[in-house]
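How it folds:
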Amino acid sequence: MTGDIKNTIFSTIRRSREQGLRQLGRLARHEQIMLMTLAAILGFVGGGSAIAFREAIEFFQLTFLGFQFGGGNILAETPWHRIILVTTGGGLLVGLCLRFLVQGRHIHSVSEVIEAATFQGGKINLRTGLTSAAVSALSLGTGASAGREGPVVHLGATLSAFIADKLKLGRSLSRTLLGCGVAAAVAASFNAPIAGVFFSLEVVIGHYTLRAFSPIVIASVTGTIVSRAYFGNFPAFTELEYHVVSFLEFPAFAILGVISAFTATAFLRSIAVTQYVVRHSRIPEWLRPACAGLAVGLIALLYPQVLGVGYEATDQALNQQLAFTMLVALLIAKIAATSISIGLGFGAGVFSPSLFIGAMLGGAYGIVATWAFPDLSSGPGAYTIVGMGAVAGAVLGAPISTILMVFELTGDYSITVAVMIATVIASTVTQHLYGHSFFTWQLAKRGLNPKHGGERQLLRSVRVRDVMEQDFETVDPAATMVEIRGKLLQSHHGELFVIDDGGALHGTITLPDMSETAFDTSMDTLLNAEDVSRLHPPVLEPHDMLEKAIRRMDAVHEEQIAVVRNTTSMEVVGVVRQVDVMNAYNAAIMKAHAAERGED
């Protein structure tokens, strides 16, 4: 009978366990289905936002100039005063919008998305995102020498964050949906679905995870479908076929990578210097974009190709339609115009300018290389493609996604190795020369480091009250030296907290704190616990974050710290120990890694 009862109990437990596992499996499948559905929806949203942004730019161009920016032929025939009026007036409108409409009084872009993904759990303010996108479109539509990819990424991320917030999703799912919005926006903006996926993972999410990869792919493909349905299936630049003539040409590509690194560093430094000079000037913030518009308009009188995104001039360089002197002149003019546009707040993204600068550099370098070694050169057009990838990858700090994006933008996969070599060399050298990409430099100015963002977020997700213990040894302030020595001998942690009848902390006692009185009994009748205790010991409060606890322990070199209700009453409510802090941190890391792998 006993055996039958035991078998019945075990069978019941086994059936319950199997039912529980099946239920968990169904919940996981439902979550995956929901996530994939949301990814497809965000693909439509991201694709639609990219289309709307491009149309907004064209609307402002037609409104203020009467035509869209081209390769410079139409602009060359436009009266000079109209160009100056449009760029300066547009800058004035942008400055007023930044002053009264946009939070932070600056155009939000990719760095704010990285900050949201890394430090804020995927949260972005909807109003800020929409107004920033509108001001960015106005900037580009009135001649700002910048790119459209940053505002598009921020807009797609903003809409994704809004949907995640309305659905009350957790931090992990919110970050994944943020990546979906970014991937869809990039893919739709450049007709580059593969690059959209890797840009989202490499730049915004910061790592490649199984849980995030599938929905981001779905969003990117959906965004591309939406874009192709509207604009057609065309690459951003003319499809050209280039082939590496000889393996002896690879040293030339490597040298181009080094030169691209110096060019990218000069570009980044020029933006930083411009911002520094402007920040220490007396020009009012709302007037700075107008000054930028005036300066860019003056540059455009000689080189109208610098206005706007600049894809037309980039395409001309790819088709070898620009002379050497023009390539060099446009390289310098674009760096100056973009630095002024972004440095004075009259701008948007940097990816398109990076492609422009890289194309001019690569084209000029290719002309020299072809002249020096005509039998070994693949032609200036091939070097133009390589220069585009090298400079853009170095500026963005995203070599993988940039390589893929250049391939998809040009439709040319025949010189893959050459682009990879130059881009990797350029990115590596730029990191040594400058130490930052454009996005990490922007975050560093705010005191943020995305490399440590995940760790910091884990430390901030756990509070001291979650790890504090109640088993700590106390002693009354009036306790005798004999009593103190006895309690220290029995203490597991070698420390006593001196606490009065009201529970308030007066100090701590350890053998080092007692100094010579630890073993000298001649003064026992004259001293008590309050006399030998260390006054004003370090304390923590229950709501303090784990990050603060670790910093405090490192600063005072102690393995345990008292936790007080507040620093006014100093009432001790517990103790936090280093071993418990590290265990909690390791548990949070394991939980985060499990979530990344898609495990419950």
